[in-house]
Automatic annotation (TrEMBL):
Origin superkingdom: Bacteria
UniProt-listed Gene3D superfamilies: Homing endonucleases
Protein task: Involved in cell division and chromosome segregation.
Name of the protein: Probable cell division protein WhiA
GO molecular function (one): DNA binding
Domain DOD-type homing endonuclease: 96-165
GO biological process assignments: cell division; regulation of sporulation
PROSITE patterns recorded: INTEIN_ENDONUCLEASE
Alphabetized UniProt keyword annotations: Cell cycle, Cell division, DNA-binding, Endonuclease, Hydrolase, Nuclease
Similarity annotation: Belongs to the WhiA family.
């Protein structure tokens, strides 16, 4: 997804500024050099993101350097460090990005960069490239943006809510996480930031997953109904046999006797199948009523489910 987003170009120059500002807030640090000049370091493990940042920075006449190092931890991923040495041009860039306001640092309130809709989309795209992730749609839906800046985190949450996305925020150790848990919200976010291919892939997997879940629900429901039918039939047969031993079926009213005999002859039949076997026309509810009446008669004779034939 980040490889795709790294190739998305902003609509206007203001979009480049907004996207770079968000990227810098996610993965950038400032350096202080001589004469109070400022420099920039940006670190990422994604080569496409590194190329994106480098291409945006090069719109300004900066002297940049790229350092690639290999991680020593388990994954041993490459780490890309983009360095811009302290200079007056870097200070101008940070002012253009809204990170510096005069001699003061702007903690994360970039309202001046977010006046246009295209800039707001670019800003969110930069935030995802710099510190975002989304889980595979085969599992639980989860998209998050991670930053160590609480003011920047609040800005992202407000921005997502402005797009009518139910963004929530929590903290994890020293980081702040803005996240989405709803599948529709995640697809809307992907559409907003321009990840159209990823959106199609996400939706394809999501549709298959929803259909599989729907089939499982129907199968489970059908299985439960079948088990319920089997349990009822077993119970009915046991009680009818109890009545046969205690009073005899010939003592029953004709309608109940016919129903009892058919149930004994076809213990595995459903109610609808019993209807088709009756000589006289009767409805499914009528058959059900007769079977309940037979069960009530057995219960009135102290049926306990463990009765044995009389010797």
């Amino acid at each position: 997804m980040k490889n795709e987003l790294a190739r998305v170009a902003g609509e206007n120059n203001c979009c480049f500024i907004a996207e770079l500002a968000s990227l810098m807030r996610m993965g950038g640090t400032m350096l202080i050099g001589g004469n109070s000049n400022l420099g920039i370091n940006f670190t990422t493990e994604n080569a496409a993101v590194a190329r994106k940042v480098l291409s945006l920075i090069k719109r300004f006449p900066l002297k940049t350097e790229v350092v690639v190092s290999r991680g020593r931890r388990l994954k041993k991923n490459n780490s890309y460090l983009i360095k811009a040495i302290p200079s007056p041009v870097v200070t101008e860039l940070l002012s253009a990005l809204g990170i510096m306001r005069g001699d003061n640092i702007n903690a994360g309130k970039d309202t001046g960069l977010l006046r246009k809709a295209c800039c707001r989309r670019a800003y969110l795209r930069g935030a995802f490239l710099g510190g975002g992730s989304v889980s595979r749609p085969e599992g639980d839906y989860h998209l998050e943006l991670v930053t160590g800046n609480p003011d920047f985190a609040k800005t992202l949450q407000r921005l997502l809510k402005a797009f009518h996305l139910p963004a929530k925020m929590t903290d994890r150790k020293q980081d702040y996480i803005i996240y989405l848990k709803d599948g529709d919200a995640i697809t809307s976010f992907l559409r907003i930031i321009g990840a159209h291919n990823a959106l199609m892939n996400f939706e394809t997997v999501r549709v298959v997953k929803e259909m599989r879940n729907q089939v499982n629900r129907l199968v489970n429901c059908e299985t439960a109904n079948l088990q319920k039918t089997v349990n009822a039939a077993v119970r009915q047969v046991e009680k009818i046999r109890f009545l046969l031993r205690r009073v005899g079926l010939d003592k029953l009213p004709p309608a109940l006797r016919e129903t009892a005999e058919i149930r004994l002859a076809y213990p595995e039949a459903t109610l609808q199948e019993l209807v088709a076997l009756m000589e006289r026309k009767v409805s499914k509810s009528g058959i059900n009523h007769r079977l309940r009446k037979l069960e009530q008669m057995a219960d009135s004779l102290d049926f306990d489910g463990n009765s044995e034939p009389a010797e």
